[in-house]
Amino acid sequence: MLPQIAEIQRQLEGQHYVTDRAIATTIYLAMTLRKPVLIEGQAGVGKTEIAKVLAAALDTDLIRLQCYEGLDANSALYEWNYPKQMLHIRLEEAVGEKHDIRQQEAEIFSEPYLLKRPLLNAITREDKAPVLLIDEVDRADEEFEAFLLEILSDFQVTIPELGTVHAKHRPYVVLTSNRTRELSDALKRRCLYLWIDYPDFDKEVRIIETKVEGINHLLAEQVAAFMQVVRRIRLSKTPGMAESLDWAMSLMALHADHLEPESVTETLGAILKDRDDVSRLAGARTDSIVGELTSLDEDGLRTSPPQIAQRVDKELVSR
Amino acid sequence: MARKARHSDLQRNIIDFCRLLRDREMLVTPSEVIDAIRTADAVDITDRQEFKTALRSVLTAKPEDIALHDATFDEFWRGRLQELIQERGEDGVATQDDEAQGEDMPQPQVAEGDDSEASEDEEGMDMPLYSPVEVLATRDFSCFVPDEMQEIARAIMLVARRLATRESRRYRSTQRGHAIDLRRTMRRNIKYGGTVVELARKKRKIRKPKIVLICDVSRSMDTYSKFLLQFIYALQNTLGRVESFVFSTRLTRVTDYFKSSDIYTALDRIAREVPDWSGGTRIGESLKTFNAEWALRTVNKHTIVLIMSDGLDTGDASVLEHEMEQIQRRAARVIWLNPLLGNDDYRPLARGMSAALPHVNLFASAHNLASLQSLGKHLAL
């Protein structure tokens, strides 16, 4: 392994982000090849977190652009501050200053009257390159994607009244997508691609132990194993990593040091966020999963979730 | 000199590797090939795992690519990487020590000595070669095996979502948005003596048409109705203003069943509670019930009525014709989706079908994803 990659991994872990080599390698490449990274994966696997941690590790600012349906270039790039411009004109009239019109125009179309939105903000940083997070890009529409493509290839923006702004420092760009729709090939090809899956048992244990202070090893393992089971059952909302952590913390708040049917039932709301899912799993079914898990040792917890899930899933279908 | 030659060796291999991926239907652009070459310079190629993850992040673009890339990588670089590294070592260029060779190659997944055939078999079994959605798009629904249901359900969801979020030509006023709403701006700024201080903006409305879906679940539609019901489910959950009905000999309103948040529960309930599931077909009678009991409440001049049926009616064709006329008079548009239309030899000669056709604004097929997709432009008012 290149020392640089090991260093990145070390830095990410230093920010309490449990990572693996694929993630560290991709980030290293993004920094060396200066290409944007497109991160895809299910909700709650820590896509957004990567950008945050990256910014912290690089000790630079994180600029975030949250995408939504109908997001347009104006709210992503820049807008003129109309009220301020208007006020300026009225003030000058009131004071009675006479400027020549050209000068006037240059005045109100200058930087103080510009409202920088995230994208412009990201390329006009003076000191050092920020991390630009373009979150949930699949939610924006295709026109916006095309527009983004233009920005990401040149890192320059033309503002008719001001001229072209070049990036002094090219930002590190991280895009995330939940795959609610397929992104355009052009955009995907411009980016390095990273697919993050739900963590496996060992990684999940490590994440829980890193993020939930004071949790004992056994509980962390049982929580992880339970989540591994639940994620394999067909549900309307599969719980992600955020849910595991919430749940582990809830259990800690109840002073649990291992899983018990009662405490699990009480806290099930932390992982199942859909009424149907709760009604399908709560009660006897949860109890039987817990019962089975608590009888297992570490190796058992690592290997048996698939079979348990298969059995439960079958029961649910035949119900 | 030697360095240059060696370098191009690695380059040539990377180019070959990309070519192999392309042969296996993965999309690899020239700029990605260049990136791959730059990547090889940037990472430690003696570390096989590192080289593999690095190439993966450069060359893949969707989750389906990953398995294909990794398997092809193992197969392609098995012997080659070793050679390249050894050459480097002999020429005294910096390399990690011998552990690089010891650490190496896990057992190849494909048996030694064979080539294309066996590996292709393996791919056929569990490695999607290209985006399943693309392949699924043109395949007739009746050819799917149960394993592919998940994939198709996801694809159907995507199609429905696209239909649901198309912009209309009308504007609504909003806080932010492209266009300045002049009329409202003038009005809002009267209080400032006509000086424009606040800008009113507008943007295009997202148009969600009101839709009534009537789906044939009689025996002759068995292979298709499963998919069409998924489509209904997806539409209903993205569009909101959807009423749905199923019929074979009798009409049943199923709107509420689909409100359950889980498609499987919904399908279960429908299958259980619709009395004549997979029965015969009486389209005319069913539509008569619709007109008598539901049309007043659910259909108006802004409603699109979508009927999904193969038109193989066992009832009285004149009844059907009359009822279709009623529906068309009331609705904005009537669309008839017939899965059989995907079959080139099909002519709408069935008695029922030819009776209904004069009162249908659009007669389209519904035998695969692509046909559902192209429905989008007709769902606008």
Structure report:
The complex is a heterodimer of chains A (319) and B (381). Chain A contains 17 helices and 9 strands. Chain A has 319 residues and is α/β, with parallel strands linked by helices. In chain A, the strands form 3 sheets. In chain A, strands 2-5-8-1-9 form a 5-stranded parallel sheet. Chain A has a two-stranded antiparallel ribbon with strand order 3-4. Chain A has a two-stranded antiparallel ribbon with strand order 6-7. Chain A starts with a helix and ends with a helix. In chain B, 34% of the residues are buried. In chain B, helix 1 packs antiparallel against helix 4, helix 3 (48-59) crosses helix 4 (63-90) and helix 8 packs across helix 10. Chain B has helices at residues 2-23, 30-42, 48-59, 63-90, 99-103, 116-126, 132-137, 149-164, 182-188, 222-239, 263-273, 283-298, 317-330, 351-356, 369-373, and strands spanning 167-174, 179-180, 201-206, 210-216, 242-247, 251-253, 303-308, 333-338, 362-365. In chain B, the strands form 2 sheets. In chain B, strands 6-5-4-7-8-9 form a 6-stranded mixed sheet. In chain B, strands 1-3-2 form a 3-stranded antiparallel sheet.
